[in-house]
């Protein structure tokens, strides 16, 4: 890249919306980054990728594209956009061509925690509210985890089944933050996906909600990615 990369686009995962990025947003904007947050509906991978590409279209110059959890699938597909200089995964799925969330979670390793996903209702999924904190947000204050549980964004079954056609990590440099205490995506699975993507990888203590609980670690990795491609 012939110019500094100062744009960051943040993409949330399933069951949550973009408001969880506020701590990361505050740190990055304080350092001079222009940060945009994609508020996608998690109805289908295609529509979520379209929403992300609209935000990328609006950027002035190259961007670092960041995804958490299911947002990793979205940025893997959307990251081939011409303006994307780097892709960053935060405790996220990093699928290869033809893979989806559904295929990646189909055969969990023995002893891996099973996310408390309730049976689908009208094509949408929610996490069991009573087990939300333990599985998703174990390192957040109880009141904050309860709020997240009660404000869940229903996750479309179609979004889980959406397959990636051209993984951005095959053509764009990538970074990965492993959440060491994650009970949604097992840390060994995160490490394996990061290694496959040849991502620059760091680890941080933290639950699946590491982007909320450890915003400094997340922001630092995003800044390193931006500096590396500037």
UniProtKB/TrEMBL annotation:
Q: Which Pfam families match?
A: Abhydrolase_6
SUPFAM superfamilies (alphabetical): alpha/beta-Hydrolases
UniProt-listed InterPro entries: AB_hydrolase_1, AB_hydrolase_fold, Sec-Metab_Biosynth_Hydrolase
Please list the residue ranges annotated as the AB hydrolase-1 domain.
8-220
GO MF, one example:
catalytic activity
Q: Which PANTHER family match?
A: AB HYDROLASE-1 DOMAIN-CONTAINING PROTEIN-RELATED (PTHR37017), ESTERASE_LIPASE_THIOESTERASE DOMAIN-CONTAINING PROTEIN (PTHR37017:SF11)
Q: What is this protein called?
A: Pimeloyl-ACP methyl ester carboxylesterase
Q: Which organism is it from?
A: Plantactinospora soyae
